[in-house]
UniProtKB/TrEMBL annotation:
Gene Ontology cellular component terms for the protein in this record: bursicon neuropeptide hormone complex
Organism for this UniProt entry: Zootermopsis nevadensis
Protein name: Partner of bursicon
UniProt keywords, alphabetically: Signal
Gene Ontology molecular function: any one: neuropeptide hormone activity
């Protein structure tokens, strides 16, 4: 009985040491398929006066970049962590945001009538979109 327990314990220890000591073949956070891709979104912006009454609603279809893809993550046995596993998760996110001014060209008054007079027919809005995307450690918002 004691020799079976010792054999089991030694096997478990070798298993753990193997996974902790053997380096991963994939680098941490390696960009597997994290890309900056073009996309199309519909933006609506409402403008109100000082009393909170709706003055106009402007909208438009806008081409913007987005981050999409997968990153290498791993879970491995660990004798150091309380759960017995070391988890390294990576997510595809923007590494740099660029500010851009876009024009919303479909503007309507509160009654739904399209505005055509200069200064009311369009609305410029500042947005921030991804200029580049890459893999970051999940939950790391310090960058």
């Amino acid at each position: 009985m004691v020799s079976e327990v010792a054999w089991w314990f030694r096997s478990l220890l070798l298993f753990i040491l193997f996974f902790v000591a053997v380096p991963s073949t994939v680098q941490q956070g390696e960009d597997v398929a994290c890309e900056t891709l073009p996309s199309e979104i519909h933006i609506i912006k409402e403008e109100f006066d000082d009393l909170g009454r709706l003055q106009r609603t402007c909208s438009s279809e806008v081409s913007v970049n987005k981050c999409e893809g997968a990153c290498t993550s791993q879970v491995q046995p660990s004798v150091i962590t309380p759960t017995g596993f070391l988890k390294e998760c990576y997510c595809c996110r923007e590494s740099f945001l660029r500010e851009r001014i876009i024009s919303l060209t479909h503007c309507y008054d509160p009654d739904g009538i399209r505005l055509t007079q200069e200064g009311q027919a369009s609305l410029d809005v500042k947005i921030r979109e991804p200029a580049d995307c890459k893999c970051f450690k999940c939950g790391d918002f310090s960058r």
